[in-house]
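Morning!

This is the sequence you dropped in the shared folder:
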Amino acid sequence: MKISAARVSRFRLPLVAALATAHGEIRARDGVLFEVETRSGLRGFGEAMPLRGFGLESQRAADAALQEIARALLGHDVRDLRGALACCHATAPHAPSARAAADCALHDLAARSQGVSVARLLAGDRPLRAWLRVGALVGDREPAEVASRARALVARGYDTLKVKIGTDLDRDVARIAALRSAVPRALHLRLDANGAFAESDALRALDACARFDPAFVEQPIAARDVASWSRLRALSPVAIAADEAVRDRSSARALLDRGAVDRLVLKPAAVGGLAVAFEIAAYARACGVGVVVTSFLDSAIGRAAALHLAAAIDDGDAAAGLATGSLLACDLAELPDAPRIALPAGAGLGVAPDCVARARCAVGASIEMAA
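The structure's back. Tokens below.
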């Protein structure tokens, strides 16, 4: 069963409202849809949506890399997944976002060919989580808006909320205080600094946030050197998690081997794909460090891939950060935002781009290749 065709298509997904982060304001998400197909009509999908601050290639570079990967994969046997993934890495070693798109499409296609879900393909014989708790992003808002948004999310059943911090510490504290006063204390609060603080300032920020009892603070510092993380963790009054600092196997292992973090926030789209992400999660688990799978402000294709990864990881009942679909004004497919999400039914991802939505979000014509 060989890959007979591949397609590369650019798209844009505007956000309902601009989202402020330490890396700048996001108004739309630009991406590249990657599709592989067999002569029997089986198809697999993935996407590359590089996000500023993660050290990934540009969208243009991802587009070019996926075209090269598409040519390299034509004629490759779907049953040799490991060989196909090795081919992707050899073709685009410096384009992790493109490799993640190809990795997802190949897992989708391979799972469909075997009549199983991507989660089952990843997990093998290990148990899967059929349902996952999901956390929601409150976003960057004024304190009164934060409180109102938090109350609405809790009323819908969310027990885990995330707030972006790092633009102004006094304003951050006011926003977190407003949230904590508006919702039950039992709510799990996560804070995400996106690397906003220098190491010298991070401890003051963590001290200021500690009284609000966050479960952890994501990426408090931008530094990639493990020594900075180790020093900060030793002094921090709250748990800290690495996000942007987890770029691949080696960066994750360096943090874990030094005991420099309390959690890993894992985005398959940022580390080169599902296979690498699953390996990182297994190593973290062996080190006694929890993993939280989150989205990349992805389309439904990327969120479905992250959902399958979270279901395949044996990490208790950690809430996955996947309720970001409602931030998008349009999407490539349907995938619900809810406090609990079930794995999509059917083989593969269980999700495929809708033709009408795909046309509405398209930017330019698709590039098609055939064996």
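Headline: The first strand starts at residue 3 and ends at 21.

More detail when I'm at my desk.
O.
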